């Protein structure tokens, strides 16, 4: 948790990634690492990314003589070949018994309970920092909830316009209506790109996953009552 918290506090200085994340999509995280180091890949550099992924793969690295060796560095009495097992997620099951795994899982749940850990950091910290920042710097940060936007779209389109320094006149109500219409769920979800299963290189989530039902409370179709109750309790706390 020390490294996790430090990476959230100093994202420009500390790059944190789990083995599971790296295995799940190696290319995306190679690109993330390059951006962190200040050398982002261009679209035409895909072959270079593939080459890096290949040369840093388990099969290639484990084939080097030094990594097959039983020698070890002076500062760390562990042989080089002990760092290479199977190159798969879940290999610990071949080394630990069920009771030990259960105990470790319980300790992990206890340590992370209520932390709201997700790729961008603890969820509640994420939301509250933006909330507080929007109150401290209302001219720089515009914060709105989905529920507020759904309740009265026209009012919040006008608020956003004022935030950007452009105010609608009374006779421009038709323009406001046009913006609301063109930014509606029905219109946006009808575009080919938003029906696509493609995804941006930096975030492996397909575009079509951002469009569900356009209704407040749709989470009830995905979460059971016990999970909803727990989330509500965490949110109140």
TrEMBL record:
<dbReference type="InterPro" id="IPR027417">
    <property type="entry name" value="P-loop_NTPase"/>
</dbReference>
<comment type="similarity">
    <text>Belongs to the sulfotransferase 1 family.</text>
</comment>
<dbReference type="Pfam" id="PF00685">
    <property type="entry name" value="Sulfotransfer_1"/>
</dbReference>
<keyword id="KW-0808">Transferase</keyword>
<feature type="domain" description="Sulfotransferase">
    <location>
        <begin position="116"/>
        <end position="235"/>
    </location>
</feature>
<feature type="domain" description="Sulfotransferase">
    <location>
        <begin position="7"/>
        <end position="115"/>
    </location>
</feature>
<dbReference type="GO" id="GO:0008146">
    <property type="term" value="F:sulfotransferase activity"/>
</dbReference>
<dbReference type="GO" id="GO:0051923">
    <property type="term" value="P:sulfation"/>
</dbReference>
<dbReference type="GO" id="GO:0005737">
    <property type="term" value="C:cytoplasm"/>
</dbReference>
<dbReference type="InterPro" id="IPR000863">
    <property type="entry name" value="Sulfotransferase_dom"/>
</dbReference>
<protein>
    <recommendedName>
        <fullName>Sulfotransferase</fullName>
        <ecNumber>2.8.2.-</ecNumber>
    </recommendedName>
</protein>
